[in-house]
C-alpha cells in the first residue's frame, strides 16, 4: 500500500465511522475552551470537565479571571496536574487577553502562542476547534497513532508529525482529522496494549502488519 492509498483508506474509514468527531472537553465559548485546553496538558479531559464548572461559575469571563488571585484560583484546580503553574498561566493568560487583545480570545496561532501557558499544540486546538482552521494539534495520541499506522515516517517531534500530516490531509478535513486521531488513540490504539482486534484500520496499519509477520 502506498502512502497515498494509506491516507485515503484511513480518512475514508473515519468519515464513515466517526463523521462528527469533536473534542470531549465541555465548553460554551472560546474563553472556556482555552481555559480547558490549558488545564488539559498532561491531564485527562474527564478530570478537566469535572474541574471547569466551578472555575466558570466563579470566573464567567476573561475579565473576571484576569482579576483572580492565585490564592482564590488555586483551590479550584488543585486536583489538576501541575496546579501551581496552571494557576499562574490562567491568570497571566486572562490579563494579557484583556490588556493586549481587548478581551477577545485571539484567533490565530502566532497571537495565541504569546499567551502564558499556550504553546503550539494548544493554539492549534483553539484555531482548529473554534474556527475550523487547517491546523493539526499533535498530542501524545496523535503522535503515537500516526506513527503506528504509518501516516508519518521517522517523525521525531510533534512538529515533524504535524507537518507530515498536513502534507497529506486535505485542508478541509484537518480540523476533524485531529479529533479522529486523538479519539482513536484514546479508545482503540491505546499506548500499552492497542486493541487491534477492534480496529477497522488493520488493512492499512503498518504496526498491525508487523504483528502478523511476527506471529
Automatic annotation (TrEMBL):
Keyword field: 4Fe-4S, DNA damage, DNA repair, DNA-binding, Endonuclease, Glycosidase, Hydrolase, Iron, Iron-sulfur, Lyase, Metal-binding, Nuclease
Cofactor(s) named in the record: [4Fe-4S] cluster
Pfam families xrefs: HHH, HhH-GPD
GO process terms (BP): base-excision repair, AP site formation
Listed EC numbers: 4.2.99.18
Entries under PROSITE patterns matching the protein: ENDONUCLEASE_III_1
Top EC group: lyase
Domain HhH-GPD stretches: 39-187
Cofactor note: Binds 1 [4Fe-4S] cluster.
GO molecular function ontology, one term from the record: DNA N-glycosylase activity
Protein family membership: Belongs to the Nth/MutY family.
Job description of the protein: DNA repair enzyme that has both DNA N-glycosylase activity and AP-lyase activity. The DNA N-glycosylase activity releases various damaged pyrimidines from DNA by cleaving the N-glycosidic bond, leaving an AP (apurinic/apyrimidinic) site. The AP-lyase activity cleaves the phosphodiester bond 3' to the AP site by a beta-elimination, leaving a 3'-terminal unsaturated sugar and a product with a terminal 5'-phosphate.
PANTHER family: A/G-SPECIFIC ADENINE GLYCOSYLASE/ENDONUCLEASE III, ENDONUCLEASE III
Designated name of the protein: Endonuclease III
Protein's organism: Chitinophaga arvensicola
Amino acid at each position: 500500500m502506498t502512502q497515498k492509498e494509506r491516507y485515503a483508506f484511513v480518512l475514508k474509514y473515519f468519515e464513515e465511522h466517526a463523521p462528527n468527531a469533536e473534542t470531549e472537553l465541555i465548553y460554551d465559548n472560546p474563553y472556556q475552551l482555552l481555559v480547558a485546553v490549558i488545564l488539559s496538558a498532561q491531564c485527562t479531559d474527564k478530570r478537566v470537565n469535572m474541574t471547569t464548572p466551578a472555575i466558570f461559575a466563579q470566573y464567567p469571563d476573561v475579565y473576571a479571571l484576569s482579576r483572580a488571585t492565585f490564592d482564590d484560583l488555586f483551590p479550584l484546580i488543585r486536583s489538576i496536574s501541575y496546579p501551581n503553574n496552571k494557576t499562574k498561566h490562567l491568570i497571566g493568560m486572562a490579563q494579557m487577553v484583556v490588556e493586549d487583545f481587548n478581551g477577545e480570545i485571539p484567533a490565530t496561532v502566532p497571537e495565541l502562542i504569546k499567551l502564558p501557558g499556550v504553546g503550539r499544540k494548544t493554539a492549534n486546538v483553539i484555531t482548529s476547534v473554534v474556527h475550523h482552521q487547517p491546523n493539526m494539534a499533535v498530542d501524545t495520541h496523535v503522535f503515537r497513532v500516526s506513527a503506528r499506522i504509518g501516516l508519518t515516517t521517522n517523525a521525531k517531534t510533534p512538529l515533524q508529525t504535524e507537518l507530515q500530516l498536513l502534507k497529506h490531509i486535505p485542508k478541509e478535513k484537518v480540523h476533524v482529522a485531529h479529533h479522529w486521531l486523538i479519539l482513536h488513540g484514546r479508545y482503540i490504539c491505546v499506548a500499552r496494549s492497542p486493541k487491534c482486534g477492534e480496529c477497522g484500520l488493520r488493512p492499512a496499519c503498518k504496526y498491525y502488519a508487523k504483528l502478523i509477520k511476527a506471529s
